[in-house]
Amino acid sequence: ATSTARVAALPTAELHLHIEGTLEPEMVFELAARNNVGLPFQSVEDLREAYQFTSLQSFLDLYYECMAVLQTRDDFRTLGERYLERAYEQGVRHAEIFFDAQAHTARGLAAEDVLDGLLDALHTGARKGISGGLILSFLRDRPVPEALETLESLAHRAGDLLAVGLDSAEVGYPPELFTPVFARAKELGLRVVAHAGEEGPAAYVWEALDLLGAERIDHGIRSIEDPELIERLRRERIPLTLCPFSNVKLAVISSLAEHPILDLLDQGIMVTVNSDDPAYFGGYLADNMAGLTAAFPSLEESALERLARNSVDASFAGSERKAELH
Ligand code: HPA
Ligand code: ZN
């Protein structure tokens, strides 16, 4: 196995990271105290013990509950800065970060406070050598008109966004529903990604590609059930942003050794390793890579280098930045 420290020597791009999923239990308590928010947990340990999930939904329930402590622009700046510091220590040099605007506006926050706080953090990160951008991610289990309103409310700030995405509870909320939202995002000049094929079927991956115009698929591991889809992903070099620790924690697979990442790599799919919600799933990007080397003794250094290289290639960074990171 390769240690986290050795993996961290490889420069990588993190492409699948929910900023709200970097809210560590200590910070939940710190912000709860600062903002006078009550918590149904007695202590940090008590909260950590609740981190036992049986499905995506069981995680989402806790994830949305904890983010109630995030109240101000400054909270989002702190959250973003702390993530970028930890990511930097793990070798991440470029981060494309999801934020769930609707989870905050539904609580009465202004979308622009969230956006501005995260932009503050990215500016701090840029000074320290980590580039990146923000992905406005729509919650697929909330009404489509709400997603459209959220997008319109930030349309005048489209220049501060990199892309749009689609996340939250997947089964029963096919990408097709969001076709008009993504069409509008493209009109605004935004890049497009979408979660698909995590708990949902391979058919959702097809829809994300054909109806939403997704340029990358987040998770997408259930693509392995559909050989025709695999062939398309390979031919068109469509990246999958895989999150190994997440898949185990949410019981999408039974153990790390069952992860299809090496199969996918062998089949010529553009796969990348990411951390998804590292505060909840047990580690950051290099921790995920190191975990894979422990689970797969046959995983060679050259495969780690390939994964790191893929992450940069699959990013939306400009060609000059990509060259710097290679
Ligand atoms: N899947 C869907 N929605 C999410 C996730 C995820 O892994 N993490 C945070 N929101
Ligand atoms: Zn995700």
UniProtKB/TrEMBL annotation:
Keyword tags: Hydrolase, Metal-binding, Nucleotide metabolism, Zinc
Residues of the signal peptide: none
Keyword Protein biosynthesis attributed: no
Binding-site residues for substrate, renumbered to this chain: D277
Active site per UniProt: E198 (proton donor)
GO BP, sorted A to Z: adenine catabolic process; hypoxanthine salvage; nucleotide metabolic process
Assigned EC number: 3.5.4.2
Enzyme class, broadest EC rank: hydrolase
GO molecular function list: adenine deaminase activity; zinc ion binding
UniProt site (Important for catalytic activity): H219
Family classification: Belongs to the metallo-dependent hydrolases superfamily. Adenosine and AMP deaminases family. Adenine deaminase type 2 subfamily.
UniProt protein name: Adenine deaminase
Species annotation: Sinomonas humi
Lineage summary: Bacteria, Bacillati, Actinomycetota, Actinomycetes, Micrococcales
